[in-house]
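Researcher: I'm comparing several assemblies side by side, and this is the next one on my list. It has 541 residues spread over two chains. Same procedure as the others: predict the full complex and return the structure.
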Amino acid sequence: MKRISLIWLLLPAVLLLAAFIVMPTFDLIRASIFDPDFTFKHFQRLVERGVYIDVMWRTVRVSLIVAVICTIVGYPVAMFINLQPKKRQVALLFLILIPMWMSVLIRTFAWIVVLGREGLINDLMIGLGMTDGPVQMLYTSGTVITAMVQIMLPIQIITCYSAMTEIDLDLMRAARVLGARRWQALTRVYLPLSYDGTLTGLVIVFMMSMGFFITPALLGGRQDMMIANLIEFQVQHLNWSFAAAIGIVLLVLTVSMILLLRWTGRFAFRRLLNVGR
Amino acid sequence: MRVMQTSRMLAVYFWAMVVYLIFPILIVLPVSFSDNELLRFPPTAFSLRWYQSYFNDPVWVDATLISFRVAVVSMVISTTAGTLAALAINAAPKRLAGPLTYGATLPIVIPHIFIALGVFILAIRSGLTDNEMMLALAHAAVAMPFVVLITSAAIRQIDPTIARAARVLGAGPLRAFRVATLPPLIPAIVAAAIFAFFVSFDELIIAQFLMKGSETLPMRIWADLRLDFNPTVAAVSTLLIVVTSLAMGVAETLRRRAARTLAP
């Protein structure tokens, strides 16, 4: 196609991204270092106060925990779907895709109904005589992670599954025919071939977890505040420049952690399988 | 054909995970029909009072209408811009296709809170806070990558010789596009539009920052969950769960059908 018409086709998308993604990003950078004159005071404040360091470190830690749990828990689910007959795979995928597209707000609310003081679990436990009064489950870190894993899991499963559909299952059969045990065929054939997609899933879940806002705010206590909550808090208190500085740190942290995860992931893979030397 | 024997344990594990994913969502449904003020489970008696309180409360109804308006505008913009971009990406020289796809799908990797903050500062500078069009455009930017990904996948499956045949038979480029390229893409475009609609309809943070005077539905739910907890939220959630499931079922079916029928 002619170059001119290509540019016309791209124009609406370019304008949209330029106005609502690229320009605001530059605005954010500017707001974080000019107040009104050039200054690094917002970044300084961020690294000098222990509270803020805590929030940042917690965000990275929680996101990493969620990503790792999703990977371990999701991998067998994706594998199970991939090993089913084609027709059945489609039906099973629906069970994963429908919750994936459900609003995060509603999925978080659902956890309040399940785990609240008058919720299902407490009701069951009291009914069974396992406890005398309601157990406090909301506003704890464990609940935040349980819910975040549930919200992110479909994404990990789908990413993993897409990678697995590329695997030629005849290779597994060949391995079995040649005398490999089931777990050997799994770890020597299936796992290496699905490794890259699994790592991609882990990175995506980590990245999305870093920006989580709704779930820690509704299910966590003060001790569970993540970077996005801190940003919202600062905006409500009209500290826009400081909020902008936190936003930039969030983006930089996310990108550098993604690079680190990709790099260590590849490295671990090579060491694990002794390949690529 | 069964490719590999999967152990029964793996099957049990799979269904346990499905329960973990879906069960908490399903629990909301019975609570919405409760007659009790508290989010108590199981409900003590059946009633529709929370549905009444949703439909009779102008605050809830207005919030729903605003969200609907914003989502429709955002859907039209992101679907148009995203589909055109996907067509361009697939027609572009090979070496440009990769960078263009990365560029067009960029917003996926940026946290919403970051976009929200940026758009908010932009809106303050330009005096456009509390503007529904501004919100719709911001949502469109966030939803567009999904449109590009879904329609690109469908465009790649199309046989380009059909459009070429149309050209050879005397059709102009626009007509060739309309009669040969577009029709097989419709299911994918509709699927993309449905996804785009819900990206906007469910979005909270950007709206929260941008809107001050008026409220979208997620903002209303959010405010309710933070302040006076009552089962009206459960009724709204139930309606949303049903509507989203149906729409996503349609969208996924269309997307799959598009991928299947277009495959050579």
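Model: For your comparison table: Chain B touches chain A through 85 residues (CB under 8 Å).
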